[in-house]
Amino acid sequence: MPSWNVHTAHVERLLGDHDPGELGIRDTNAFLFGNYVPDVYVGYMVSPLSHRLPYRETHFVDPGHVPEPRFWEFWERYGLPSADEGGRVSDVVLGAWCHLVADNGYNHEVNLLIARRGVVPGDMTRRRKQHDFDLFGHTLGISMQCAMSERLVSEARGFPQYAIERDDLRRAVASARRIVRSNHSHERSGPPPTYSLIQPAEFDRMFRTVHERLEAGLAAYARLGADAPLLRTPLPHASAADA
After folding, report:
1. CA 203 to chain centre
2. Does residue 157 contact residue 163 with C-beta atoms inside 8 Å?
3. pTM to 2 decimal places
4. What is the structure's pLDDT at 28?
5. Which residues constitute the domain of residue 88?
6. Which residues contact 7 (CB under 8 A, 6 or more apart)?
7. What is the Cα–Cα distance from 242 to 114, expressed in whole angstroms?
């Protein structure tokens, strides 16, 4: 999965290119936090926690070394049913959809890359991929930080898939803020880093592809509401696309 710095960079790019209202976003702080939500209770990014949830449940995936989240399933089961009479969902829900779309997009492209090159799937390949994503994240200048607010507390507690309690929310916000500060201290400029698996041009293409998919989905949501088809259109898994 991409690191939170990559998710943050996508939020900043979206808000840099568009007025929030053009994307159906009402509270940018809640939307930013929503882009972290699927990872919160997995336990990798936030600790301690009141409890943990399996990755396969928070990300709608089958077991695998580079799983591709089914963001459409999240929307069908939790996004669409949570919409109000005007067809609007909370910004945390909207951000969580973006997180799953991004994870799907990056992991799908990595799986295609692995298949094309004949790389053996497995834990070592997963570690190489994650190492590269950590380096890539440090090439992205980010500054946007979450802040605790009563609106965020309310939206997090009302997240339809599982409630996020105030103490867990506070720890997650603190973790996200640390990641932004850490990114500044590790930020890279000049020539791209030496990656293990993914080439710089491939990262550029992946970022652009994911951004365009997020942009299109959010714009459709702004126009049509939660029933917009783009929010819940299934995409093929890399294994099926490559067959």
Report:
1. 16
2. yes
3. 0.96
4. 99
5. 4-241
6. 35, 36, 98, 99, 102
7. 11
Convert the pLDDT of each residue in 185-205 to its tens digit.
Answer: 777 777 889 999 999 999 999
Euclidean distance between CA atoms 231 and 98, whole angstroms:
10
169-to-1, 49, 53, 216, 230 alpha-carbon distances in Å: 21, 9, 15, 29, 29
Residue type (1 letter), 186: H
Tokens describing residue 130 = 């994650």
The letter for the amino acid at 169 is: L
Name the region of 72 (left: φ>0; alpha: ψ -120 to 50; beta: rest): alpha
What contacts 58, CB < 8 A, 6 or more positions away?
38, 39, 41, 42, 161
Q: What number of other Cβ atoms are within 10 A of residue 2's Cβ?
A: 24
- Give the mean model confidence (pLDDT) for residues 122-151: 94
Residue 13 has pLDDT above 80, yes or no: yes
CB 46 within 8 A of CB 172: yes
Question: From CA 108, how far away is CA 10, in angstroms rounded?
Answer: 17
Compute the average pLDDT of residues 44-63: 96
Type of residue at 213: R
Measure the CA–CA gap between 175 and 212, rounded to whole angstroms. Answer: 28
Domain count for the chain: 1
Q: What tokens appear for 137 in the block? A: 């994240």
d(CA 50, CA 131): 29
The two structure tokens encoding residue 71: 């963001």
